[in-house]
Design a protein that fits this description.
The chain has 127 residues and is mainly α. It is 76% helix and 5% strand. The protein has one domain.
Length: 127
């Protein structure tokens, strides 16, 4: 049972890493960057602990995209300053809907994680 749980945790962590790279790079590099997500989706479709791999991918994508959006908004806010009478300012678009979508992906991924872990416990439990 211990080995199965470690294996499933490893699949979840690989999903988180692939999702974070795809989510963060999609906002930095552009439309071509989600091609990184294609191998992750193929991997999720074939790996044996499907709910946990997909859950990790969703959590990672939401955290990666949300983190980049939050960092960009924070950097813009920090740029606004007045030094020696010179005003520099940065105006950012409202990223609230995108942050909400990223949080929804993280929530969905966490829900799938719970489902996958419950399924793991049931399938490994001796009768």
């Amino acid at each position: 049972m211990e080995k199965v749980q470690h294996l499933r945790l490893r699949y979840w962590m690989v999903g988180v890493a692939l999702g974070a790279v795809a989510g963060g790079s999609a906002l930095i590099v552009g439309v071509v960057a989600p091609l990184v997500l294609v191998p992750g989706l193929v991997w999720v479709a074939h790996e044996p602990t499907r709910p946990l791999g997909l859950a990790g991918l969703l959590v990672g994508f939401g955290v990666g995209a949300g983190g980049v959006l939050a960092a960009a908004s924070g950097g813009c806010a920090a740029f606004n300053a007045t030094t020696n009478g010179v005003v520099q300012s940065c105006y950012s678009v409202d990223v609230t809907p995108y942050l909400a979508a990223a949080l929804a992906l993280v929530a969905l991924g966490l829900a799938l994680t719970v489902v996958g872990l419950r399924r793991t416990i049931r399938s490994v439990r001796p009768d």
